[in-house]
Amino acid sequence: MIGNDGTEEFGVVDGQQRLRTILQFVGIERDSDQESENNNNFTLDALHPTAVHKDLGFADITGEARKRFYLYEICVRYLYTEDTKEVEEVFKRLNKFAVPLKPQELRNATYHGPFAALSEKLADDDYWAVNRIITPAAIRRMGDIEMMSDLLIGLLHGPQGGAAKIIDQYYEQYEMYDDEFPEQGRIQRDFANALDAVRRIFPKLSDEPRWANRADFYSLFIALAHAFRMGDLPRSSEGPMKTMLTKFAEDVSKVVATPSLRLSEPVVSYARAVVKGSNDRARRIDRHEALLKIILPLVRAKK
Length: 303
Prior knowledge:
By secondary structure, this protein is mainly alpha-helical. The protein has three domains: 16-71, no CATH class; 84-182, no CATH class; 201-303, no CATH class. The chain has 14 helices and two strands. Strands 1-2 form a two-stranded antiparallel sheet. It starts with 15 loop residues before the first helix and ends with a strand.
């Protein structure tokens, strides 16, 4: 919070007890229950009897051990808001039933730039729940917004890993922009085109067990968006595309069940990339390339 005089103040939403314990150990803050005038009388008496620092106070710790103490980094997430209700809500979520916040819940409390706003806007569509791509439980924990973020990153940079730390990095990268991030207009068009194609090819996606699966939907969506940058899908090709993708999904499932089966190279490559670590960047790239081999022949090059 910035004061009228330009000073900046921070409030601790959660973790105050831990921070105060560290400060009391160093001697910066006195424990109100201690009567001694010496601030530095917090000893490590609860350590295991064989621990090196058992019963030592901070004044007793010197040399390299003290350096390591000062160099230790504490993970901090900033909530860039002065809205007390929003802060209170975060605190409640942190402490209610001792359930920690999901990565996307933390992002929503931390980032408010155009990338975050677009992710939230795209998630506000019944399509994701109706087609069971995201479960109601995941939506309650903002899993739908996280999925939109993941898709946007894929449209911007090609298939990337879906780990929380990777998504965090892109949120931070795009937070610096005020109104729009670079290529936002094009990415929104790509997103709309790909989603429209999926709707037309699979009017009832929930009947397609593989493509309604979140990991496989990601690959299909990004591959279609990539293909449509090079060409268009004629209406007459929508039926053949559905038939081809349905057959492809069936063959992938066969290879997953029986790895020794000798089917087409794209099918085998895709099947290998869905068994383990399906959200790893390398496996997403393998699936992306396999799908492009069967999608691009049906795309009509732009004039």
